[in-house]
Write a structure and sequence with these properties.
The complex is a heterodimer of chains A (115) and B (774).
Chain A lengths: L1 H20 L3 H27 L4 H25 L11 H22 L2
Helix pairs in contact in A: 2-3, 3-4
Chain B lengths: L1 H34 L3 H5 L8 H21 L2 E2 L8 E2 H4 L3 H15 L6 H28 L1 H12 L2 H7 L6 H22 L2 H17 L3 H17 L5 H20 L6 H4 L4 H22 L2 H32 L7 H7 L3 H5 L1 H4 L9 H8 L2 H12 L5 H19 L4 H30 L5 H10 L2 H24 L8 H13 L4 H29 L7 E5 L2 E5 L1 H12 L5 E3 L5 H8 L2 E2 L8 H12 L2 H10 L4 E5 L10 H15 L22 H5 L1 H7 L3 H4 L3 E2 L4 E2 L10 E6 L5 E6 L7 H24 L3
Parallel strand pairs in B: 5-6, 5-7
Antiparallel strand pairs in B: 1-2, 3-4, 7-11, 8-9, 10-11
Helix pairs in contact in B: 1-6, 1-7, 1-24, 3-5, 3-28, 5-6, 6-7, 6-9, 6-22, 7-22, 7-24, 9-10, 9-12, 10-12, 11-14, 11-21, 12-14, 14-15, 20-22, 21-22, 22-24, 22-26, 23-24, 27-28, 29-30, 29-31
The chains are: A mainly alpha (115), B mainly alpha (774).
Chain lengths: 115, 774
């Protein structure tokens, strides 16, 4: 039973990997960017847990900056993904412009909030 | 092919014509929304109303005079003496900044309006904006026809009028616009999946957070809708784009507002949004994996993910619970708790329960405030279910939650009103749609064009609906085009199919004509009621009162008389004590320092004033002396029959005072559980300060001392004041101002003696008074 489940898991990961290998390069770059942002957020949370959350607004803006960029990048990825039928009308340039605008607002707010 | 081209041309011309018509109708709706709120200016004068608006007016004056930076750092030493209040950090700045900006723009255009004028007309202007926002929201849900109907209903819904007549310069005036507009942008993002609208949505949410504490309604309703969509299997990537950026950006923007600050991540009102934020990420991941795997593999993945996911979820929930338990306010604020548990406030926080607008509403008030909409809402809900889309499910959720909230607090009827308007608009427009369509098919002699002409020559409302019908047709056609873009030829096929379907739904001619007439009558009834409510019920400024009697109209301008007396006859730094209702007005109109005001942030301080009002004269004098009070102001309606005076509010003073200082006991003021001030009243009641200050010299007016509010002769008619002296009483005796007598020097030995004599009697009281922090 255990062996079969571990074999299943192996199959699963192999299938996942082969499915993922087929995605276009630009989407992979976005994925990397998302991973990086989430990883940075995690580092900050760990640091907060070790050192303490004293300038709470700094911590909050740091983490939310990372989470925000990750979320926005995911949105961009959803919009430029050619497999998504919903966004056929949306040009990738338009999606990127929206992404830049949203990031601009986000980071203006964060700079204001950083204290 | 040429024929279809011609048809397309006709459609586009019609479409353009419909757009122009819709634009003018919207313009007229804006004018209507603005002008129906001017009754108060016409009947009375251009004056700020009630209590809270005076505070907002004063803050706006400060803002326009000293600029934005001084405003953020404003420490006000004129209220809550001797504590003061940090206004910049404790006020929702949206309304003030809006009016200040309006004033600044007008002045830089060389239009010299006074700040007061701008403040008076802010609410009507924003109600016009609100009705346009309603049009946009309803258009996103059910098309332009429903949008116009909903906008016209919102422009004159009595519940909203009651909070936004000219002069009612309160947070709700701009907040309702912000609420509807935020919902519109959310729906728009949900329908289009555009990140641009998501950004706008979070900025609109920021404006809402700036304006009103009711923003927690948004940040709980939207997660609820997202959760509903996920649970019912309607998850889409548009939902993710609509929700996830809103949470991150909205939280950051909300914590920029000083009054919210870290509460945006610390209090339980916001936790629902974070929880759903996590859930939507899990769901998004699941959908992504599902899309990239074969079904068999996906089953394996589910087994794996469920076992891991459950563990992660438990960890998350544990962290959340720990956060809630450790947060300083125990998670929920008092007002939110009293929303979840309607009996909470009356049990624990009398100061919230004492405000009449925090009471649950009575049934007639539903009929008064939303009138026929109450009957149309169920029809609208049914219309929303056929077919159910993401947008219409949001509207249904909105009405259900707001009905509950309005049942808890009267003032939240205001949140219900837009939802009721939207659903009634949908219901009315769908009904007109069905009836006019059946008339159209029953009268084949009329061609499409002549029918449009006939419609416009008829009544206003059917005209609306015919147009709605048309625009809906075109919009339907457009959507069908969009969805079948790859095959352009069979555009007519679905159209003809829908026409066949429509033909099946045809009603008999007579029935539909009668039904249309009845609906128009219903609408007319609503209009008549709304105009009546705007003109008679809701436009009284409550600072100037009028009464009709057999010998004509009487105007009672006593409040302004009293405040003017205070500002002309007292020193600038004198402190005036009154019940908290009159605090804002005293600071704004008389410019004198007050002890407590309508921002009830310090319960103990209010309880101190309540205790003083319900104590006997000497004890009250000592409390007031310790607070450095020079003048005491009481409002008394017994002579002219003004029911909301201090004697009627007195039991709340006793309750609030007794909640902090236990020697004040409510039963001492009641005779057999009844509150009375006639000869049967208890001695405690007849000797308390409020009774004495209200009825001092009252017997001199008519010889009998008959109180017209309580409809009885008062219990104790002839008495003298020992520690207070009357300095001013207004024309109709509505406001009476007393001065504290200064302590006498030479009597000192005497008091010591009498103290030692009566020490046994007053010892307990004295101990209580010593605990008094002032």
């Amino acid at each position: 039973m255990a062996r079969s489940s571990s074999k299943d898991a192996q199959d699963l990961f192999r299938a996942l990997w082969s499915a993922y290998a087929a995605t276009p390069t630009n989407l992979k770059i976005i994925d990397l960017y998302v991973m990086f942002a989430v990883f940075t957020a995690l580092i900050q949370v760990v640091y907060m847990a070790l050192v303490g959350s004293f300038p709470f607004n700094s911590f909050l803006s740091g983490v939310l900056s990372c989470v925000g960029t990750a979320v926005l990048a995911v949105c961009l990825r959803i919009q430029v993904n050619k497999e998504n039928k919903e966004f056929k009308d949306l040009a990738p340039e338009r999606a990127f412009a929206d992404f830049v605008l949203c990031n601009l607002v986000l980071h203006l707010v964060i700079m204001n909030f950083l204290g | 092919m040429a024929a279809s081209d011609a048809q397309n041309g006709v459609f586009s011309v019609r479409h353009a014509f419909g757009n122009v018509l819709a634009f003018f109708i919207l313009l007229l709706i804006g004018v209507l929304a603005f002008s129906i709120r001017l009754f108060s200016v016409i009947k009375y004068e251009s004056v700020i109303h009630e209590f809270d608006p005076y505070f907002n007016y004063r803050v706006t004056q400060f803002l326009t005079k000293n600029g934005i930076y001084d405003f953020w750092n404003w420490f006000d030493d004129r209220t809550w003496y001797p504590l003061g209040r940090v206004i910049g950090g404790t006020v929702y700045p949206g309304l003030t900044l809006t009016a200040g900006t309006l004033w600044w723009i007008l002045n830089s255009l060389n239009i010299p309006l006074s700040v007061e004028t701008v403040c008076v007309f802010t609410a009507p202007i924003f109600s016009a904006f609100a009705s346009w926002a309603t049009y946009l929201l309803t258009k996103e849900v059910k098309g332009a026809g429903a949008g116009l109907t909903a906008a016209i209903l919102l422009a004159m819904v009595p519940s909203y009028i009651s909070r936004s007549v000219a002069g009612s310069y309160d947070n709700e005036a701009v907040a309702i616009f912000a609420l509807i507009f935020t919902f519109y942008l959310y729906i728009k993002t949900l329908n289009t999946g555009s990140l641009f609208y998501a950004t706008l949505n979070s900025i609109a949410y920021f404006y809402m957070v700036c304006s009103w504490g009711g923003y927690t309604f948004i940040i709980n309703l939207i997660p609820m809708h997202v959760l509903l969509c996920i649970v019912t299997g309607r998850y889409s990537s548009r939902l993710y784009i609509a929700y996830a950026p809103l949470v991150v950006l909205g939280t950051l923007l909300a914590s920029l507002v000083p009054v919210v600050g870290f509460n945006a991540v610390m209090t339980s009102e916001h936790f629902a949004s974070f929880l759903v934020f996590i859930i939507i990420h899990v769901v998004a991941l699941v959908y992504y994996i599902k899309g990239s795997l074969s079904p068999k593999m996906f089953k394996v993945a589910v087994a794996l993910v469920v076992s891991v996911g459950v563990a992660v979820c438990f960890a998350m929930v544990a962290v959340l619970i720990a956060l809630v338990a450790s947060s300083p306010t125990k998670g929920w604020s008092g007002r939110s708790l009293s929303l979840l548990d309607p009996t909470y406030a009356s049990k624990y926080i009398p100061i919230i329960a004492s405000v009449s607008e925090h009471q649950p509403p009575t049934w007639p008030s539903y009929f008064m405030d939303i009138n026929v909409l109450a009957f149309l809402v169920p029809a609208g809900i049914i219309a929303c279910f056929s077919p159910l889309s993401d947008a219409s499910s949001f509207v249904v959720l909105y009405i259900v939650t707001s009905v509950y909230f309005s049942g808890v607090m009267v003032r939240l009827m205001l949140v219900l009103a837009p939802a009721a308007c939207i659903l009634s608009g949908i219901a009315l427009s769908q009904a007109f749609d069905v009836f006019t369509r059946s008339i159209k098919f029953q009268l084949p002699s009329l061609s499409d064009n002549s029918q449009a002409g006939e419609g416009s020559s008829e009544n206003v409302v059917p005209n609306d609906s015919v147009k709605a019908d048309k625009t809906e047709d075109t919009s339907k056609e457009r959507t069908s085009k969009k969805s079948k873009k790859k095959e352009k030829e069979p555009v007519e096929k679905p159209l003809s199919k829908s026409q066949i379907k429509k033909r099946l739904l045809v009603l008999p001619l007579e029935t539909s004509v009668i039904a249309i007439i009845l609906l128009v009558l219903l609408g007319a009834f609503y209009v008549v009621h709304s105009v009546w409510a705007a003109a008679e019920a809701y436009s009284a400024p409550s600072i100037v009162l009028t009464s009709h009697s057999h010998d004509g109209l009487h105007v009672f301008d006593d409040f302004r008389e009293a405040y003017a007396w205070l500002s002309h006859n007292t020193e600038v730094d004198d402190k005036v004590a009154s019940w908290w209702d009159y605090g804002y007005q005293t600071t704004a109109m008389a410019n004198r320092t007050v002890i407590v005001d309508n921002n009830t942030w310090n319960n103990t301080h209010i309880a101190t004033v309540g205790t003083a009002m319900s104590s006997p004269e000497k004890a009250a004098w000592e409390i007031f002396q310790s607070l450095d009070v020079k003048y005491v102001l009481v409002v008394f309606g017994g002579l002219v029959g003004y029911p909301s005076d201090d004697i009627n509010k007195f039991l709340w003073m006793v309750r609030i005072g007794g909640g902090v200082f236990p020697h004040i006991k409510e039963p001492d003021y009641l005779r057999d559980g009844q509150y009375r001030i006639d000869s049967m009243a208890t001695p405690t009641m007849l000797n308390c300060l409020m009774y004495k200050l209200s009825y001092y010299r009252f017997v001199e007016t008519d010889g009998k001392a008959f109180d017209r509010v309580r409809r009885t002769e008062i219990g104790k008619k002839h008495f003298k004041l020992t520690h207070f002296e009357e300095v001013f009483t207004t024309h109709h005796w509505m406001v009476r101002i007393y001065k504290l007598k200064s302590p006498k020097n030479r009597i000192r030995g005497k008091t010591k003696k009498s103290k030692s004599k009566t020490s046994s009697k007053t010892a307990s009281k004295r101990n209580e008074l010593k605990r008094n922090p002032f």
